[in-house]
Task: structure prediction
Amino acid sequence: MVTIHNLTKSYGRFRALNNLNLHIDQGDIFGFVGPNGAGKTTTMRIICGLLQADWGEVYIDGVDALMHNDMIKRKVGYVPDFFGVYDNFKVMEYMEFYGSMYDLNGETLHKTILGLLDLVNLSDKQDAYVDGLSRGMKQRLCVARALIHNPKLLILDEPASGLDPRARFEMKEVLKNLGAMGKTIIISSHILPELGEMCNSIGVMEKGNLVASGKVEEITRRSRHSNPLTIRVLDNKDTAIQILKQTPWVEKISIRDDSIIIAFSGDDEEMSQLLSALVTGGVKVSNFHREPGNLETLFLEITGGAKDAR
Amino acid sequence: MLDKIKHIRKMNMNPILKKELRLGSRSIRIPLAVMFYDIVLAAIAVINIAVVSMGNRMAEDINFSGYLSVFQVIGWTQLGITMLIVPILTAGSIAGEREKQTLEIMLTTPKKPITIICGKLLASLSNYLIFVISSIPIMAIAFVLGGMNWFALLGYIVMVIVLAVYLGSIGVFCSSVFKKTIISIVMSFLLEGLILSIPFCIFFGVIIVVELVAEIYNDAMLNTAAAWWDPNFGILPLILTVHPLTGFFDYMMRVMNLTSISEILKSANCFGKIMPILANAWIPLNIICSGGISYFFLRMAAKSLNPLKKGKKKKIAAQNRYMQAQQKKPAGVPPQEQAQLYQPQQPPANGQATQPPVPDMNGITERLTQPDLPARQEQKESQ
Result:
């Protein structure tokens, strides 16, 4: 659906994008992760045709986006991170205005708008003034606005920023529904757990480069190996520590109350070996588990690792 | 049939104009401004009539043509106010959208920048039109006493609208070039003043310099100076035709039965042999020139609004061809396959360029574990 090849953009001397390469499949919900200034918004704005790239190629649905900008605009819906609404405009009129910008009108447009407002849970706000909506509602309205021409690709820049947990949840539901409809969606965020719930693939950006990309499950599964193993014992703590010290894959041991927390580099097979060694050693193990993969730690490790290499 | 026409009209109406009209109709600002404007105009008209009547009372015979000056006074006042309010109305149009952070969304729609610009200009001018139309009854006071007709008024409105389009396109141009509304308004006033005064400055400046030089050096150079006035050269009419105000001046003078600019120039034999047509079609030519300059400013505004420049596209294409050619040589794979190869990307700056390209996930884990390994081993040893 989206293929980016060698995309480069500089602001003066600062290189925001440095030969970025990226591929997003049809129907993916792709999460763009990265610290501020990594180039997420720049990439999105180039895809939408709001920014001129220095060089590179962007293909959306097989169309060269940098050369045939006008064709792209009917394929892409964009929700910027900061956007304004017109005072004195009702929700329905707001949607009608943007519909008319895509040469839509009449009964079809009206039906489309009602469907979209239903999708974003704003059906009861049709006659409310846009200015009086809450931030979360405005954000959802903007999503509906971006969908008015039924684009194949939806781009959301920080859709959850500045929203309270409830609004965030509602936003998430909207995006899940859209994903179920088969739309390709690109979401940027710096809140990782949220992206983990919404997206099925993510890309980590750092200093204008894509440092990692892939399916969420894969990434979380891999990152599990760096998470600590928590063992809770009822007695014989010293024996347990003795056994742990002899185990080759245990790298670091720390004790917190009843629990022993260890850094473990082995895989699942070696984990079970460790457990049986403890049990046969006479240790009463009441809890033995590893924290599930966490995108946040992964993110810190990837970006931190990239920094070290520099 | 009627429905069909209605439908077509609905389709063709500029969506931005429609939006602005809708929003504008809900704001109290324009009605208030129009009210204030009409009160001022009416006050001027009443004072004017009072002065003329007073003069008639003193005189032996009643001078009816004096009442005609109402038309003239209101006409000139309206011209001055036009030059004041049109830049204010238009200079905020694009800059305001930018400040409201709605311009960006507008630019992601398939509507072309020129459509956005024209919609904005038309919306501002329709607001301005309310001012002009509301002033018609006041100007028509002159009709009551005779001596004027509707055509004179109609012509006046056409002239003032041409001027408003001209000033409005300058305002919209400033609005799209400058980011802030305030700066845009100030700059459009500056540009307006500059454009209205520069032709005269150049012209009179050249004459003064040439004549000074001629006076100081020799009489022979006076001939050069005279060349500027030379009928066959005709530079004065040319400069004046391009100037947006001269058409208006000319018209007002004609209406008031004064000698118009074109007639003065004609009697001074300034048109010469090559441009007699100028003298006869002075006002239409002036309108055409104004229209052309307005079009130029609107085009420039659209150009500055468009985030993607045409010349840059070619540059990008050239750069991409160059990059592809460079990559082709060592790899020897067709570009399509190359693009697929690029999906999982190995950051080049990561110091792992020597490693064979690994699929994405393996790459991550390697990078995750590798830098930490030595440190972990040390810890283990210490334990």
User: Anything to note?
Assistant: Residues 306-310 of chain A have pLDDT under 50 and may be disordered.
